[in-house]
Amino acid sequence: MLELVGIPAVRSSEYPHQFSGGMKQRVVIAIALACNPKILIADEPTTALDVTIQAQVLDMMNDLKDKFGTSLVMITHDLGVVAKICDDVAVMYAGRIIESGTLAEVFNETRHPYTRGLFDSLPNIKNRKGELKPIPGLMPDPTDLPEGCAFAPRCKYATEACSQPQHVKHFSDTHYVLCSRYDEPDFCIDSKEDPANG
Predict the structure, then answer these.
(1) To the nearest 10°, the Cα dihedral for 188, 171, 102, 113?
(2) Exposed end of the chain (fewer CB within 10 Å): N or C?
(3) What is the 3-state secondary structure (H, E, C) of the chain?
(4) Which positions ≥6 away from 67 have C-beta within 8 Å?
(5) How many Å apart are CA 190 and CA 172, to the nearest integer?
(6) 23 in Cβ contact with 7 (< 8 Å)
């Protein structure tokens, strides 16, 4: 299994402190694959790895997923990782899926204000003078979530309807959002931020 993830078998008797961060990640992946799982759940698998090692680990996970016929559930805050490795995407806020669809749908046809806020808060390499647009406010207390939309206090589109239980709006067989504003026929969010700002 170690050889499968690119580590020579002769290193199998070595201690963890003798491995780099990227190699430790490979060992953990080898351990996870040893029982031939049908589903592999990877929770922030590239945290604390430099960009080069991160890319190597992601490429390896993709190759192993195909080789073993394993489904991969990737849990991450890194939208670059999502873009590189995922086919389908579910965006969560306060423990609820608020937007779900194929990678292309969620990235190119973003519908939920929180998802738009995530994309708008990323730096733009084409416009280095553009300012970051952080999402205002703070996450709600997970032990005291409102009955309606948990994102409403931070959302510029929020209305009274957002304090009520939210409705799922389907845009295709695979793409949906949890947002009651879409009950309004003409409602839409900004498709992207002002090009002048990035």
Answers:
(1) 20
(2) N
(3) CCHHHCCCHHHHHCCHHHCCHHHHHHHHHHHHHCCCCCEEEEECCCCCCCHHHHHHHHHHHHHHHHHHCCEEEEECCCHHHHHHHCCEEEEEECCEEEEEEEHHHHHHCCCCHHHHHHHHCCCCCCCCCCCCCCCCCCCCCCCCCCCCCCCHHHCCCCCHHHHCCCCEEECCCCCEEECHHHHCCCCCCCCCCCHHHC
(4) none
(5) 20
(6) yes
Determine the Cα–Cα distance for residues 16 and 27; give it in Å rounded to an integer: 9
For residues 107-122, average pLDDT = 94
195 pLDDT higher than 60: no
Residue 107 has pLDDT above 50, yes or no: yes
Tokens read off for 83? 């873009």
Q: What is the pTM of this model?
A: 0.85
Q: Which two tokens stand for residue 104?
A: 């292309």
**What is the Cα–Cα distance from 190 to 54, expressed in whole angstroms?**
32
